[in-house]
Amino acid sequence: MIAMEEKKYPILRKIFFWLFSLGFIIFAPIVLFYSLGYKFDMHLKKFQRTGAISIKTTPQQVEVYLDGRKISESTPYVIRELLPQKYTLSLEKEGFYPYKIPVEVQSSHVYDVDIVLLPKMENIEKINLDFNVYKFFVIRHIFSKRIIVFTDKGIYLLDEKFENSQKIATLNIDGPTINTIEGLEEDKNQLIFWNKNNIWRVKISQSHGEVYNTASLIYSTNELIKDVFVALKGRYLIIQEGMKIVILDIVNYSAFFPILELKSTAAKIFYDSESETLFLKDSLPSTDKSSLFKINLMEYIYERRTD
């Protein structure tokens, strides 16, 4: 009996040896592939080099879902060992709108995701003044912003925090007309604003009394006003209307001068008040192409003075 058992041990050792060898032959390449960043793709029936998704969010600690499956870690986080294919990445946090983004992972690449989540709007601050607002414009200064508000009680100046308000002018324009205002320029304590056919000017009242300046109509045209710029040290306006460019004297607005005829209805102008340079995009003669042009008005003035 003992002899029979002793004969079985060598056989069992051989069986275990061959089973271990066979397992090593089968699993060693798999382990090696995984250690090198490969993963078996069940759909393609082959090993593929994996990729990753690096996720950063503002704010942090955002829940992450990949193809609807929740990832145990929150942001910032890197999802590794992903087969190269398309995924849907979802980001969720209480108090913020959920965010979805399609991600295409490629072999040996890290797809970077950096998202700012938008908070759900709950408490919207209202200005603490009792008037009907028709129109407003935000004027950017170097260190702050000012808000120009057109109301049924006049024009008001506000700071961006809604903490300070100041009435700066009265209005003799009806509400429907005010609602057609398309642009506004502020220059040297005056406001220039316009709609498609009219331009108004008002000086900003500096006192806090009961006397305020009133907006005046300084230019009117049957053509379409496309853009207006304050030029030449705040004395003139450059107006793009219809197919021409007009210069208007702000102080003596009976004086206006058509200076250029444009060739295209798609022409566009911009005036740089620092360099006193007019830039314009317009069609080239006898072609279907456009180009960029410039005119430095101060150089023209000085050249004519020396003639």
Report on this model:
The strands form 7 sheets. This protein has a 4-stranded antiparallel β-sheet, with no helix packed on it. The chain has a 4-stranded antiparallel β-sheet with strand order 10-11-12-13. The mean pLDDT is 82. Among the domains are: 2-36; 46-116, Sandwich (Immunoglobulin-like); 232-307, no CATH class. Strand 18 (225-231) and strand 19 (236-241) form a beta hairpin. It has 3 helices and 24 strands. The chain has helices at 2-35, 175-178, 297-306; strands spanning 38-41, 46-49, 51-58, 63-66, 69-70, 77-82, 86-92, 99-104, 110-116, 133-140, 145-151, 154-159, 165-169, 183-186, 190-194, 198-203, 216-220, 225-231, 236-241, 244-249, 256-261, 268-272, 277-283, 290-296. The chain is α+β, with helices and mostly antiparallel strands and 307 residues long. The N and C termini lie far apart (131 Å).
Output the keywords:
307 residues; alpha+beta; flat; four-stranded antiparallel β-sheet; Immunoglobulin-like; 24 strands
Short structural summary:
Helices cover 16% and strands 45% of the residues. By secondary structure, it is α+β, with helices and mostly antiparallel strands. Strands 5-4-7-8 form a four-stranded antiparallel β-sheet, with no helix packed on it. Strands 10-11-12-13 form a four-stranded antiparallel β-sheet.
